[in-house]
Amino acid sequence: MVDSAELRRNYLRPELPAVIALYLVLRALGWVWPLRWWIVPALVLGAAVVGTLGMKAAGGRVVSGWHLWLRVAALVVAMTPIMYATGWGPMLSVGYVFLFAEVGRDVGSAVTRPALVCSLAGIAVGELAIQFDIAPSFVSPPEVHGLAALAAAGVAISFSVVTVAISGQEDAEAEARRSEERFRALVRNVSDVIMVVKADGVIRYVSPAAERELGRRSRDLVGTRALDLVHPSDQEDLEPYFSDVADTEEDVVRTTELRLRAPDGSWHWYEVGTTNKVSDPSVGGFVAIFHNVTERRRFQDELAHQAFHDSLTALPNRAGFLARFRSELAEATPETSVAVLFLDVDRFKLVNDSLGHDVGDQLLEEIAVRLRECVRPGDVVARFGGDEFTVLVPHIRDIGDAEMVADRMLDALRDPIRLGDREVVATGSIGIAMATAGVADPGDLVRDADLAMYGAKEKGRARYEVFDGESALAVVSRLELEADLWRAVDEGGLEVHYQPEIELSSHRVVALEALVRWRHPDRGLLLPSTFVPFAEESGLILAVDRFVLREAMSRAAAWQMELSSSLRIDINLSPRFLRQPDAVRDVALALEHSQIAPRSVQLEITERTALDNDEQARGNLRALRALGIHIAIDDFGIGYSSLGYLRQLPVDVLKLDRVFVDGVAADKVDEAIARAVIALGHALGMRVTAEGVERPEQAACLRALGCDTAQGWHFASAEAAERVEAFLRGEEPLPTRADVLPLSARRSSTA
User: Which of 136, 153, 555, 688 would disulfide-bridge 681, Cβ 3.0–4.6 Å?
Assistant: First the structure.
């Protein structure tokens, strides 16, 4: 049975009465075959019934297979009698095209083959009906059959065109479906949160990633205000941001960074890119993509911290200190000022060289802790570089406030610092500079504090000095001199002068002491006391010592060869040189370079260096002595001499300091000390040399006390190599108040 409701829904639509009415008008006009008036309407209704039956037989499945063929066949069976009943059968075959174009919109290009086959079959059956006078025709055979053939060709061509159109539409729809599926898969699986926010700020859509990133389901977020998800500190920036987005074109992306609350309650940073899609009816809002950049921000913050902080002490570094300094200078008022304290750890290089860099690092860490405890909460302690620390003291009234901070710093450093199984006492020299009106560059104030610090070092260390212009000029002069010394070492500005050492029993030269001089281009010839102290502080003394070793040994070797003499050369070594691990290697290289015999070389060290409890220095002394080199203790008697240590040292010569030589002929105490030192040296199998002999009575007294050799202005001052060479050859006497004999007059017994 045909369901009447289904019949009305599928075919008894409003256009059917119009078709029947049109037929009746055409019949009245004689434009269609004059069948009985009720035949065609009956055929139309019959077509509706047949079509409905075909749909029911197909079960409503019309996409493919026999269901589609059944439906198409039913439509052809219903339509063909109507076409041929009008008398215009072949000419109305175009109706097949319109009919199946409509079906093609439902089922696509799959309708092409069944439609073409059934349409051609319908035309063939219609033509057979005409041939056997079953169906009327205004055109007689065989002309009507020719028209049918043309109609069949037209139907085939039309179907091809319709198929191409439908196929194109199908491809477009398929691509759209695939694109939509890809987009949905992307949205479902992408880690970023995609959100559509309406113009009023209400969330219209949120991607599934929101549950992972925000801990809330998408459907719970839809309809809420997007602003409620944002960190309170970032909310005030969103209104101008979205206003900017609203004023931009659709394809322009505006970015910002903000914080959203994570499932664990913490705030995570997101980079947000937003596009204006309010006018797009399929979107209807702003499309915002939230990309989690928490790790990137954390890494950036870590890099920023590293850029402005010292990794060893965790204090601000130079860049961090200067940045804070600029800020404080900008906020300074006429009633308050800013001061800088520049601290340099005294003799820190000695700690590094003797105890190792690890111990040095521990020392710096402890100093940083102590300095932090000396300042107010608003002050800034920074490690400016190496063993230098700076302290920024803002909001002070006068220099007295800064001096109070400096006193606390010095007191904090006086307590011994335990480093492993050792205790180290660290002191510091501090320079203070206070900002004055018009000072805008922090670098200028730091420079002034640095200069004041050098002034503190020159005045004995472990103290502070306040910057003043006059003292700064002296410090600048010294710094310039230090820079000039570096150039002098590199460019050959140093030279060696030689002072004879005289055998008191014969007045003959037995050795020459090599003494370094600096030929300064502007200041002339400079003595060691002018430049050796800062050379020792800066480490440049090592280069100076190496120069003197090579120059003096090479010159002595040349004189020995030319004069057939075993003249000894005496060379002073700095404490720093002797404490370095390469000391023996440097001396050995100088010996090899000059080809001088080790027994012709005497190395002189200070009493403090000889008796210092430094294993590296003692090991080097023993190794040098093992090479055959003579070792002398210079300035003996003014240090903390220990007979026990002295007996154990690899020493050949004691050099009596000029302090005791000065009064040896007039002061009984000095004479007694000189006699004791000479006796001690001889008892230990050492030679004794007196330094600073300037008067004949001193030389006579020392000779009477049994002193072996002497040197000083009474015999000869230090002279340039050329003049000493002329004296050694007997060509030119030295300026002297005593009778000093050249090598040519020496007795072999004094060699």
Answer: 688
Determine the distance from the C-alpha atom of residue 121 to the mean position of all C-alpha atoms in its chain, rounded to a whole number.
Answer: 83
> What does the alpha-carbon distance between residue 153 and residue 120 come to, in Å, rounded to a whole number?
9
Q: CA-CA distance, 534 to 536, in Å (whole number)?
A: 5
Q: How many whole angstroms from its chain centre is CA 68?
A: 71
In this predicted model, which residue has the larger pLDDT, 108 or 265? Answer: 265
pLDDT in the model for residue 748: 39
Q: What token pair was written down for 278?
A: 């309010």
Asked if residue 621 lies in contact with residue 580, where contact means CB atoms within 8 angstroms, the answer is no
Q: Are 154 and 94 in contact (CB under 8 A)?
A: yes
pLDDT of residue 317: 93
| Tokens 């000391």 sit on residue | 583
Distances (CA, A) of 251 to 203, 273, 274, 288, 605: 21, 11, 10, 13, 82
With a cut of 70, say whether residue 23 has pLDDT above it. no
Strand 388-396 vs strand 380-385: parallel, antiparallel, or unpaired? Answer: antiparallel
What is the Cα–Cα distance from 382 to 314, expressed in whole angstroms? 9
Torsion of CA 49, 55, 56, 59, to 10 degrees: 180
Q: Burial of 36 by CB count in 10 Å (0-12 exposed, 13-18 middle, 19+ buried)?
A: exposed
The CA distance from 54 to 48, in Å, is: 10
> 673-707 as b/e, with b when 16 or more CB fall inside 10 Å?
bbbebbebbeeeebbbbbbbbebeebbebbbebeb
Q: Comparing C-alpha atoms, which of 38, 71, 35, 76 is closest to residue 56?
A: 71
311: how many CB neighbours lie within 10 A of its CB?
9
Helix axis angle for 615-626 and 583-594, nearest 10°, is 20
pLDDT at 640 over 60: no
Q: Which amino acid is at 270?
A: Y
Q: What is the DSSP string of 583-600?
A: HHHHHHHHHHHHT--GGG
In terms of Cβ atoms closer than 10 Å to its own Cβ (0-12, 13-18, 19+), residue 247 is exposed
| pLDDT above 80: residue 474 | no
Span 676-704, pLDDT tens digits? 999 999 998 999 999 999 999 999 999 99
Q: pTM for the whole thing?
A: 0.51
What pLDDT does residue 44 have?
57
CA distances from 636 to 61, 183, 643, 680 (A): 120, 92, 12, 12
DSSP symbol at 665: T
SS (H, E, C) 351-410: HHHHHCHHHHHHHHHHHHHHHHCCCCCCCEEEEEECCEEEEEEEEECCHHHHHHHHHHHH
Does residue 57 have a pLDDT over 80? no
Q: Are strands 380-385 and 253-261 parallel, antiparallel or unpaired?
A: unpaired
Query: Residue 2's pLDDT is what?
Result: 46
* 601: β partners: 569
CB half-sphere exposure, 335, CA atoms < 13 A: 0
Q: Are 631 and 650 in contact (CB under 8 A)?
A: yes
> Is residue 195 within 8 Å of residue 288, measured between CB atoms?
yes
Residue with tokens 């570096």: 486
Query: Domains of the chain by range and CATH?
Result: 4-172 (no CATH), 190-299 (3.30.450.20), 309-467 (3.30.70.270), 489-654+717-742 (3.20.20.450)
What is the spatial distance between Cα 19 and Cα 274, in angstroms, rounded to a whole number? 56
Rounded average pLDDT over 367-376: 94
Distant-in-sequence, close-in-space partners of 727: CB < 8 Å, separation ≥ 6: 719, 733, 734, 742
Task: List Cα–Cα distances, 40 to 26, 98, 127, 131, 167, in angstroms.
Answer: 12, 20, 19, 21, 36
Does residue 281 have a cis bond before it (omega within 30 degrees)? no
Q: Is the pLDDT of residue 286 over 50?
A: yes
Q: Tokens for 27?
A: 């019949």
- What pLDDT does residue 239 have? 81
